[in-house]
Amino acid sequence: MRLRNKKWADTWLTNHDELVITQDRATGLQGNWMNIFAQEAPIHIEVGTGKGQFIIGMAKKYPDINFIGMEIQESAIAVAARKADEDEAELPNLKFIYGEGAGVETYFSKGEVSKVYLNFSDPWPKNKHETRRLTYKSFLAGYKSILPAGGDLAFKTDNRGLFEYSLYSFANFGIKFDPKGISLNLHEDTEKMEDNIETEYEEKFSSAGFPIYQFLGHFE
User: Fold this and answer.
1) Is 177:218 a contact under the CB 8 Å cutoff?
2) 186-218 pLDDT per residue, tens
3) Is 122 one of the annotated active-site residues of the chain?
4) d(CA 98, CA 32)
5) Residue 1 has pLDDT above 70, yes or no
6) Which residue is catalytic, options 10, 64, 85, 122?
7) Mean pLDDT of all residues in 30-54
């Protein structure tokens, strides 16, 4: 779902280029992302960060990890980044990329990212749009190219059809997982919920009684 256009977004993003990296600048940082963070630490990215609740929550909960939220919608990335900028907590371990999720291998070098998060991605339910799904094989190849051997992938959705499609796509691509890494109703799993950071969509759908599906796996 696209946000309404924010008239202030373009100017705000231009004035906060230390926090939000454009797609063109991101390609120039390939292999050198540690240079823009205050600490040397593992990098975790969220592809499709939306309004930023998840990535901001993760950055606050895990200060010893560097986080990057990626988003292609100008209004969404502006909302997310401004929310981070105005948060009462200092977040030197958080940056954003205003750019496409496709082609992540042009932003990062092999092994530069330790974990990829996909949260409530657009399901693109029509068959003709299969290649746009963030769990399609071409996207998975991109994630694999920036992760080390054993690099992690975490996926959450409320959409049963996308979840089933993604499990099939993950299996065909050779992504490994433990049965305990699959949840058909995440919010009923007390142990997993202890570390769960919710997205805006997750709060909305879970409060309406919809099950939240989760997959945790790793690339070989």
Assistant:
1) yes
2) 999 999 999 999 999 999 999 999 999 999 999
3) yes
4) 18
5) no
6) 122
7) 96
